[in-house]
Amino acid sequence: MKPFNHGERRKGTVSDEHGAIAFAEKVLAMLGEGRFTTTYKYAVMLGLIDLCLEGVTTNGRAPDSVTTVQLAEKVLRLYWPHTVGFDGDERVLRQSSVGRAEVLTLIVAFRSKQVRDPSASLSRARQVAPAAYANLLREVEWKLVEMPLPRVQQFGALDDPFIYQIGWDPSIRRKEFLDLHGFSNAIRFVGDASDHLVRLAGLLRPLLQRRWAADVARMNGDRIKDAALEDFLFGVDRIALKPVLDELRELQNGRCFYCAGPLKEPQVDHFIPWARVPLNAIENLVVADKSCNNGKKDHLVAAPHVRSWMARLASHASDLEAIAHKASWDQGSAQVLGVARATYLLLPSSARLWLSAKPSAQEFVAADPCDLKLALAG
Ligand SMILES: [Zn+2]
User: Fold this and answer.
1) How far is residue 321 CA from its own chain's centroid?
2) For 83-111, what is each residue's pLDDT tens digit?
3) How far is the CA of 207 from the CAs of 23, 62, 122, 187, 217, in angstroms?
4) Where do runs of H (alpha helix) occur along 55-155?
5) From the CA of 227, how far away is ligand 1's center (Å)?
6) pTM for the whole thing?
7) For the chain, what are the domain ranges?
8) Helix 317-326 vs helix 242-251: angle between axes, to the nearest 10 degrees?
9) In angstroms, rounded to a whole number, what is the distance separating the alpha carbons of residues 226 and 206?
10) Cβ count near 272 (within 10 Å)
11) If you measure from the C-alpha of residue 338 to the centroid of ligand 1, how many angstroms do you get, rounded to a whole number?
């Protein structure tokens, strides 16, 4: 068997589809491997998916590599909301079946020293305690380098790097190695792996989240009683969106982003739906009236909306930056643009995109790949 394809990348061919399916099968097998006693493998996979989406170029190509620092930032972001009490209980949920998951312990220690407010966002924490945040990030990076990254792709005794190759010697045992000359922090994707992760993101994300939640439920025994867990771990905190509502509404001159009507009952909407990619950066937030927001739900939107979203990014970059700064909010137009390309450039013309909320029914149109490509070219 020849597991890697180092050949020329092609898009949309039958062999691509087979390649993606074979790849997905292997990811499933990997997740079923029992060697992991913590939830790290899910965090690593979700982090890699997010980095691949964010790195998609104007040609629709996923990145060839990412770094351990970038991944550490993603993993930290994933675990951050997990390190507060669940369901009225102050204790943090266990995420290891043996001992403690060290990444969680690190974050809990950071929170107790630096940001006591459990509702504080990670961006806020970074702003309040930049040095301690940098230190935490480094500790998390080291945990990833030491533990899951060299081991995630092991099947029994077989090491099968079908997603990525690491640039360091997996036997290193001290954090100081990160500073040595010659330590490579690259995580290089093998063959078409990063393209597969982009294409399969919509399928893999809910699967990874569900398995992650199931493992957490198992590790915490009878503390978990209902399906609220998955929402606690991965859901969007709608109340937390309030601080940016007024300023975004002003930026839109009090008009709904989608129908341009005057805003009644304004709501902050994730332009690229949270269920697809949990992306809270200010660039991904728009304000819509209730009926448009309810109609749009988790749908992708038609090219005219993509066009006006791109126009807002171009003409209001500094305003968005100012809003983010004032509210200690995430920002990152390059990342958000990458995700938008990953989401819209690979859509088949059979996809249905939401256009508008009509009193009678929601209006959808067929995706027009050429039009979407033009819209995203800005
Ligand atoms: Zn509207």
Assistant:
1) 21
2) 998 878 888 999 998 888 999 999 999 99
3) 15, 21, 25, 23, 15
4) 68-79, 102-114, 122-128, 130-146, 148-151
5) 32
6) 0.78
7) 14-234, 239-377
8) 150
9) 18
10) 22
11) 26
